[in-house]
Amino acid sequence: DAGVIQSPRHEVTEMGQEVTLRCKPISGHNSLFWYRQTMMRGLELLIYFNNNVPIDDSGMPEDRFSAKMPNASFSTLKIQPSEPRDSAVYFCASSLSGSYEQFFGPGTRLTVL
Amino acid sequence: DQQVKQNSPSLSVQEGRISILNCDYTNSMFDYFLWYKKYPAEGPTFLISISSIKDKNEDGRFTVFLNKSAKHLSLHIVPSQPGDSAVYFCAASDPSGNTGKLIFGQGTTLQVKP
Hints:
The structure holds two protein chains of two kinds.
Chain A: E1 5-7, E2 10-13, E3 19-24, E4 31-38, E5 42-50, E6 53-56, E7 65-71, E8 74-79, E9 88-95, E10 103-104, E11 108-112
Parallel strand pairs in A: 2-11
Antiparallel strand pairs in A: 1-3, 3-8, 4-5, 4-9, 5-6, 7-8, 9-10, 9-11
Chain B: E1 4-5, E2 10-14, E3 19-25, E4 32-38, E5 45-51, E6 56-59, E7 62-67, E8 72-77, E9 86-93, E10 102-104, E11 108-113
Parallel strand pairs in B: 2-11
Antiparallel strand pairs in B: 1-3, 3-8, 4-5, 4-9, 6-7, 7-8, 9-10, 9-11
């Protein structure tokens, strides 16, 4: 299995631009999680989906962030407009529903200038 | 408010010695705990876990201890190897909703010196 796939691996953009991060979960997994890693807070859960339905988006920082999961094999995290404080590594993870073990993608390093 | 805390940002040990990484939590309802390991430019990978009904789980050089009364768990690596140098995240399973949601700590960077 290819594991969780994320793209792009690196993204550099200017403040005010729209950023879209993409994730393909492991085939057969029905839970998908978006995390942000920062030095201060470690791995923060932003939002998670179960069977393509958003279950909890309480971790999304503000309305500039949105996430979708149009089907079982694809999810996006969008930031519009982006700000320098959004600079971080964003991870996507997937799991079988109810399983404790999550499988992480390699992450997208976002830099907003 | 951080429900899972790793108060030591970094730890340095000599090869062959024991590494002890600590984690504290606040919610007594957490029912499962995991440790993840992360190398630079890679995503975290699962290392070892423990259920709240146990106080110890061992897997090769890695042992996790759980002290529920103190709301504390620790990861012991014996003997430590240079390849163990990585960031280690402690995570707790949120029991509400049975969704597999994990709450992570800030991470501890372990450096094992040859």
